[in-house]
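Quick one, tokens below:
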């Protein structure tokens, strides 16, 4: 099968080995995949990854031990836990010590004609949700996970970073009727957020923003984290939503002085994301900037790696 492979540089392999389906798993024929910043970090050496990347996808099940799944259009939770440990049984397996992670850790990903996932990781996509919206389900689930730290419905939230994730988090919060201020560097991107109801501020003017009890850092930079700490009011919460391939250095004294909570936030509930898409509460499609066929997936990675680019999609089938 065709696949984009990192070993370590992105290359298109026209005869990559077919994924092997283990008991309890499904084979999914990928229709559309999205390029994530994590994919770009993997291409730069993050986690020492080698193989097929890609964890944002929508596809159709072609094989499964459970025939009721065959033919269904699905998205998938990227964390494939063992399914038997206390973490899996009580909390879904996102932090299972034995887990594989689609396109990131020990499991080939979505920039290929086919992938495998346990059927317990699959979520069916309703017919009313188009592929170009469904492919956002995984990052939207991560964005909606921020709501688990947003206790007061009427309290304002500050989101830092007007990249793909920051804009999606902003839409997710607005879809839940939250008041959101998005701080970024690009007027055209900030305008996308302003159109759907966010207050927008350029980063160099952020010193005038009133501090909030919840600040979400989606900048992927040490400078963004430092700004997040400054903009969080005492006893507030900073949510970190991005990963970096390299080490960073940040003054953490505000965490002690202002008694801040710093929370790491990774994956979310896929079913919640699909439901939000089906209800029409969030439409991520305006964030799509470009798309490429799988035959030009290397070019898609190059495009996605340019500074300031929004979502790049890869049409697989």
């Amino acid at each position: 099968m065709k696949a984009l492979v990192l070993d370590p540089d992105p290359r298109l392999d026209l005869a990559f080995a077919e994924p092997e389906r283990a008991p309890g798993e499904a084979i999914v024929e990928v229709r559309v995949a999205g390029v994530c910043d994590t994919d770009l970090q993997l291409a730069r050496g993050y986690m020492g990854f080698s193989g097929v990347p890609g964890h944002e996808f929508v596809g159709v099940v072609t094989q499964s031990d459970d025939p009721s799944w065959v033919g269904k259009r699905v998205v998938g939770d990227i964390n494939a836990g063992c399914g038997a440990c206390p973490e899996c049984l009580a909390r879904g397996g996102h932090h299972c010590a034995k887990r594989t992670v689609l396109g990131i850790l020990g499991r080939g990903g979505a920039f290929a004609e086919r992938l495998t996932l346990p059927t317990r990781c699959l979520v069916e996509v309703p017919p009313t949700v188009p592929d170009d919206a469904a492919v956002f389900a995984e990052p939207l689930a991560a964005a909606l996970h921020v709501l688990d730290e947003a206790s007061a419905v009427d309290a304002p939230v500050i989101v830092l970073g007007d990249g793909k994730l920051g804009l999606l988090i902003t839409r997710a919060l607005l879809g839940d009727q939250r008041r959101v201020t998005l701080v970024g560097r690009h007027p055209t991107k900030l305008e996308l957020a302003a159109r759907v109801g966010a207050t927008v501020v350029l980063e160099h003017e952020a010193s005038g923003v009133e501090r909030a009890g919840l600040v979400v850092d989606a900048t992927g930079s040490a400078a963004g984290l430092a700004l997040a700490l400054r903009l969080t009011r005492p006893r507030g919460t900073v949510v970190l939503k991005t990963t970096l391939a390299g080490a960073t250095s940040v003054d953490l004294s505000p965490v002690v002085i202002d008694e801040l909570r710093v929370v790491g936030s990774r994956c979310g509930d896929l079913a919640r994301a699909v439901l939000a898409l089906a209800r029409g509460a969030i439409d991520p499609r305006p964030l799509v900037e470009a798309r490429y066929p799988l035959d030009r997936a290397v070019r898609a990675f190059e495009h996605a790696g340019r500074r300031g680019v929004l979502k790049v999609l890869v049409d697989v089938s």
